[in-house]
Amino acid sequence: MYDDVARAATYATDQIRRFGRFGRFDPARAADAAWAASDVLHTAA
User: Fold this and answer.
1) Is 2 exposed, middle or buried (0-12, 13-18, 19+ CB in 10 A)?
2) Rounded to 5 degrees, what are φ and ψ at 9?
3) ∠ CA(3), CA(44), CA(33), 5° rounding?
4) C-alpha angle with apex 8: 24 to 29, nearest 5 degrees?
5) How far is Cα 9 from Cα 13, in angstroms, rounded to an integer?
6) CA 3, CA 32: separation in Å to the nearest integer?
7) What is the four-CA torsion angle of 43, 3, 8, 18, rounded to 10 degrees?
8) By CB distance 3.0 to 4.6 Å, which of 6, 12, 14, 19 could disulfide with 30?
9) Inter-helix orientation angle 27-44/2-19, to 10°
10) Cα separation of the two ends of the chain
11) What is the three-class DSSP state of 10?
């Protein structure tokens, strides 16, 4: 289970970073990825 949580958190981190690159920052998508990561980590705890 913890491997899945770590994988999901890594994916969300990558998504947040991707949305901030190349001048195409999309705060709504970055926020969605952050909330998704938070939900996964909260559920795992």
Assistant:
1) exposed
2) -65, -40
3) 80
4) 25
5) 6
6) 22
7) 150
8) 19
9) 170
10) 11
11) helix
- Tokens 């938070």 belong to 38
The structure tokens listed for 23 are: 């001048």
> Which amino acid would we find at residue 12?
A
Amino acid at 7: R
Six-digit token pair at 38? 């938070």
Q: Which residues contact 5 (CB under 8 A, 6 or more apart)?
A: 40, 41, 44
For residue 26, the one-letter residue type is D
Q: What is the pLDDT along the chain (45 residues), one digit of tens a residue?
A: 678 878 877 887 787 777 666 566 677 777 787 787 788 777 776
Residues, the chain: 45
